[in-house]
Design goal:
37% of the residues lie in helices and 20% in strands. By secondary structure, it is of the alpha+beta class. Strands 1, 2, 3, 6, 7, 8 and 9 form a seven-stranded mixed sheet that branches. Strands 4-5 form a two-stranded antiparallel ribbon. A hairpin with a 7-residue loop joins β8 and β9. The longest helix is centred in the first third of the chain and has 20 residues. The protein is globular and about 65 Å long.
Length: 274
């Protein structure tokens, strides 16, 4: 009896195995994913590019102006504060206890009681007239910022937020002028939740010296009840509390400076400012 085909099939399998082995050794994989092993716990996923875009467009609570036009509905403070702005004065920056992050603590003279050690440290650095130390002083000098909350319209015309918007002196002056003009002419304020106006901020430039912001009125007035029906549940009730300014006492400030600048002549600094 003659059996045909058996040896040929075995040879074919061996040849296929030899061809597959080098590919596996080189780490090559096929375009089609291998089926899951029996009993494997497969994780589910569902990619939504629009949802991903939203996450990257609005990172966190604090809003950064993009280049171009951005529409806002600015809001008042809701804790009986007379200004739409909440002011923070921060020192940029010092290391945290674990050395893993930088924080911008609030100036103790502005947000606490007594002398701010970081301010005294900055003054000492400036007096040295050392370019390196003067650069540190420039970085650490307390910077005031006016913060206002707003709903902001994204590229899909959806209202996001509220976010906290830090505005420079020019924008703050323009917004203050609009409020004064509205009062003088008995008009609703642009930040009124029920009769307010959508404003546009145009940003040109990205550098320190070529960036310019322009505030523009749109004439589009209306109630947030219509524009953003759930605005009351989303709004920031206490803007200052939400800013969460970290105020360090003098001892904590000294420790933070030592951590951040360990190579400075601290014995000399201690003799000078304590």
């Amino acid at each position: 009896m003659t059996i045909t085909g058996g040896n040929n099939n075995m040879a074919t399998k061996k040849t296929a195995a030899k061809k597959a082995a080098p590919a596996a050794a080189k780490g090559k994989t096929s375009a089609k994913a291998a089926p899951a092993r029996a009993g494997a716990n497969k994780p589910d996923y569902n990619i939504d590019p629009a949802a991903t875009q939203k996450m990257t467009d609005r990172k966190g609570l604090f809003f950064k102006f993009p280049v171009g036009n951005t529409s806002f509905r600015f809001l008042p403070q809701f804790n009986n504060k007379p200004s739409i702005f909440s002011k923070s004065v921060l020192h940029y920056t010092v290391k945290t206890d674990d050395m893993q992050r930088n924080i911008a603590p609030g100036c103790l003279e502005e947000h606490g009681e007594g002398q701010c050690y970081i301010c005294a440290f900055v003054d000492w650095l400036k007096e040295t007239e050392d370019p390196v130390l003067e650069k540190i002083a420039k970085d650490l000098t307390a910077r005031p910022q006016l913060n206002v909350q707003a709903f902001v319209q994204d590229a899909s015309k959806e209202w996001m937020g509220p976010v906290i918007v830090g505005v420079g002196s020019k924008l703050a002056q323009d917004m203050s002028s609009l409020l004064s003009m509205a009062k003088d002419n008995d008009l609703p304020y642009f930040c009124d939740p029920y009769m307010g106006e959508t404003l546009v901020v145009n940003r040109v430039g990205t550098g320190m010296f070529d960036t310019k912001y322009t505030l523009m009125q749109t004439g589009k007035r209306g109630s947030l009840d219509t524009l953003i029906p759930d605005w009351e549940s989303r709004v920031i009730r206490d803007l200052w509390k939400k800013l969460d300014v970290k105020v360090l006492n003098v001892t904590e400030q000294k420790k933070a400076l030592h951590r951040t600048y360990p190579d400075l002549p601290w014995q000399e600094i201690q003799k000078a400012i304590g």
